[in-house]
Write a structure and sequence with these properties.
alpha/beta, 9 helices, six-stranded parallel β-sheet
Length: 314
């Protein structure tokens, strides 16, 4: 079974403005509410690609209930833990005149110890047949050490664990052999403590994470595409060109699509190519892709193998 875990769930409000003025009323030309949180996005992408999953996480109040009902209507199974307070609402505003995007991300409720223990109880029921994707930021009340504790528990149960979160404590999970890490380039630079000069340098840093225990790295490069590295192979993929409208969910789409294709038995190269097109499709949309333009975008996408030679080692 596939599980996604979103500890800091959200409703995302997408707004379009023709222009933006200070100290005046700005009226939108478009608005849309979407259930969100990185793991929820992955579940939604998996569902569109006919891969079932169960969404785990914390929800609270009327906003949390909206998320639960919205994704269940799409056919996704949920097992959320209800907490005090209201699930947060984030606002993403695109100003057409300036072609700029403003992201306002709120804190959300604080998660009590009881709710954390309830989540660990759910996690303890997973087995070696399961795969879990842990995505996004941690809510108030939960420290990054909780993430490390959880990954250790999952590893002891033989669960394949995918991690997509920015905390440097991710490095402490490498000894637990996570199935896949999906940082973006900025997160990887923060983890290693210095800038990455080019793709060859990025591959070397990904190899170092593999040597320390990670089984696979899917590195998002934004508009430059992505890299994939494991013990035996590496690939580079470009991103198709287009007008960027919303970058908030592109990485989640990349990850969800890549995993779905791999679970269907597609090769790494095939999966990476399709995932790059899908991630870009989301970036060119107001919300998640509906996959309707994938065939067109695929015409621009090329996957290039990278030779993992000794010369690449530092």
């Amino acid at each position: 079974m596939i599980y996604t875990l979103t500890m800091n769930t959200a409703i995302d409000l997408f707004i379009h403005l023709e222009s933006f003025g200070f100290n005046t009323v700005n009226r939108s030309t478009y608005d849309e509410l979407q259930p969100n949180g990185k793991g929820i996005n992955v579940s939604l992408v998996l569902k569109m690609l006919e891969v079932p999953s169960t969404a785990l996480g914390f929800i609270g109040g009327f906003t949390g209930e909206y998320i639960k009902q919205a994704i269940e209507r799409k056919g996704i199974t949920t097992n959320f833990i209800t907490v005090e307070g209201d699930t947060r609402v984030n606002v993403f505003t695109h100003v057409d005149e300036a072609n700029q995007e403003f992201k306002l991300v709120n804190r959300g409720p604080e998660i009590a110890d009881l709710a954390q223990r309830q989540l660990m109880a759910i996690i303890s029921q997973l087995s070696h047949d399961d795969l879990i994707i842990i995505s996004g930021s941690l809510p108030r009340g939960i420290q990054p050490t909780f993430l490390v504790q959880m990954v250790r528990q999952l590893h002891s149960q033989g669960v394949r664990t995918v991690i997509d979160t920015s905390y440097p404590e991710v490095l402490e999970t490498l000894s637990e052999n996570p199935y896949l890490l999906k940082p973006n380039i900025e997160e990887l630079e923060q983890w290693i403590g210095h800038d990455i000069s080019d793709r060859a340098h990025a591959v070397i840093e990904c190899q170092r994470l593999i040597d320390k225990g990670a089984k696979q790295i899917l590195l998002s490069l934004g508009s430059e595409g992505a890299l994939y590295v494991d013990q035996d192979q590496a690939y580079s993929v470009n991103a198709p060109a287009g007008k960027v409208i919303n970058t908030a969910c592109a990485g989640d789409t990349l990850l969800g699509t890549f995993l779905a294709q791999r679970l269907k038995g597609k090769s790494v190269a095939e999966s990476l190519r399709y995932a790059s097109a899908a991630g870009s499709s989301t970036a060119f949309s107001t919300g998640l892709t509906d996959f309707s333009d994938i065939d067109i975008l695929l015409q621009q996408v090329k996957v290039t193998p990278i030779s993992l030679t000794k010369e690449m080692e530092l």
